[in-house]
C-alpha cells in the first residue's frame, strides 16, 4: 500500500466490511453484500482492548497461584482419602524433575510464556496505536497477527485437565477434578483473545501518518 496522502481507502470514504470483507463506500452505512454495519475503524477499539486486557491480567494472577488440578485418593498422601492440588508452575517443575522435559517445556510455553507475551504484546500495540510509543508499523502489524494466531494455543492446560478429569475416574483409588485456576486460566485465554480481536491494527498506520479516523 502506497503511503502517499490520498491513497488510503479511508481517505476515499471506503470501508472494508468486518463480516465479509467487501469494500463499500462508508456512506452506504451497511454492507451491500451481508448488510452488516459499516465503519472505517472498529468503534472504541483501544478502550475495549484495554478493558479486556486489564481483566485478563486480573485473572492471570489466580490462574498461576491457585491449584489447576485437584487429585484425591489413596496415593496422594500418607493418609487415605486425602487430596492434593497442583498449580501450573508446580506441574511444570514436577514434569521437569521426572525427566519429561518436552512435556514440561510445552506446558510452560503454552500456559505461562505465551499468555504473558500476549499481554505484553497487546500493551505495546495499544501504546503504539495511541502514540505513547513508536515503532515500525510493519513490525507492529506482524506482532499483532502473530499474537492473534498463537493466543488460542494457550488453552492446552485447560484441555489436559478436562481430559484427565474425564478419564481418571477410579472411585476410591483416585479422582482428578479441575481446580479454581483452570477456570481462571480459561478466562485469561478467552479475554486475551477478545482483546486481540477488539484491537484494530489500522490504528497503527493512522498514528504513523498522524491522522485520526472517526469511528461513529
Characterise the protein shown here.
The chain has 216 residues and is mainly alpha-helical. The chain has two domains: 40 residues; 164 residues, Butyryl-CoA Dehydrogenase, subunit A, domain 3 (Up-down Bundle), CATH 1.20.140. It contains seven helices and five strands; from the N terminus they run ββαββααααβαα. It has a three-stranded antiparallel beta sheet. Strands 1-2 form a two-stranded antiparallel ribbon. A hairpin with a 6-residue loop joins β1 and β2. The two termini are 25 Å apart. The relative contact order is 0.18. The N terminus is likely disordered.
Secondary-structure map with pairings?
Layout: E1 14-16, E2 23-25, H1 45-65, E3 69-73, E4 83-86, H2 88-97, H3 101-129, H4 137-150, H5 156-167, E5 174-178, H6 180-198, H7 202-208
Antiparallel strand pairs: 1-2, 3-4, 3-5
Helix pairs in contact: 1-3, 1-6, 2-3, 3-4, 3-6
CATH-derived topology of the largest domain: Butyryl-CoA Dehydrogenase, subunit A, domain 3
How confident is the prediction overall: mean pLDDT? 75
Count all strands and give the number: 5
- Number of contiguous helices: 7
Backbone structural class: mainly alpha
Unreliable sequence segments:
1-6, 76-82
The CATH architecture assignment of the largest domain turns out to be Up-down Bundle
Mind describing the biggest β-sheet? 3 strands, antiparallel
Q: Strand order, main sheet: write it out.
A: 4-3-5
How far is it from the N-terminal to the C-terminal residue, by CA? 25 Å
Q: How much helicity do the residues have?
A: 40-55%
CATH class of the largest domain: Mainly Alpha
Order of SSEs:
EEHEEHHHHEHH
Computed Rg: 23 Å
Broad shape? elongated
Amino acid at each position: 500500500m502506497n503511503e502517499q496522502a490520498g491513497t488510503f481507502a479511508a481517505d476515499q470514504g471506503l470501508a472494508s466490511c468486518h463480516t465479509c470483507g467487501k469494500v463499500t463506500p462508508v456512506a452506504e452505512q451497511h454492507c451491500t453484500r451481508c448488510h452488516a454495519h459499516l465503519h472505517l475503524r472498529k468503534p472504541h477499539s483501544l478502550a475495549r482492548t484495554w478493558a479486556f486486557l486489564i481483566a485478563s491480567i486480573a485473572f492471570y494472577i489466580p490462574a498461576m497461584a491457585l491449584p489447576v488440578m485437584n487429585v484425591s485418593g489413596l496415593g496422594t498422601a500418607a493418609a487415605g482419602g486425602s487430596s492434593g492440588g497442583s498449580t501450573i508452575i508446580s506441574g511444570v517443575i514436577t514434569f521437569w524433575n521426572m525427566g519429561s522435559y518436552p512435556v514440561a517445556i510445552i506446558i510452560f510455553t503454552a500456559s505461562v510464556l505465551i499468555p504473558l507475551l500476549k499481554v505484553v504484546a497487546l500493551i505495546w500495540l495499544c501504546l503504539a496505536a495511541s502514540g505513547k510509543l513508536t515503532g515500525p508499523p510493519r513490525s507492529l502489524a506482524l506482532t499483532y497477527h502473530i499474537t492473534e494466531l498463537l493466543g488460542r494455543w494457550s488453552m492446552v492446560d485447560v484441555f489436559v485437565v478436562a481430559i484427565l478429569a474425564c478419564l481418571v475416574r477410579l472411585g476410591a483409588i483416585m479422582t482428578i477434578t479441575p481446580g479454581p485456576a483452570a477456570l481462571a486460566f480459561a478466562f485469561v485465554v478467552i479475554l486475551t483473545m477478545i482483546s486481540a480481536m477488539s484491537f484494530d491494527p489500522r490504528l497503527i498506520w493512522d498514528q504513523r501518518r498522524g491522522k485520526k479516523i472517526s469511528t461513529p
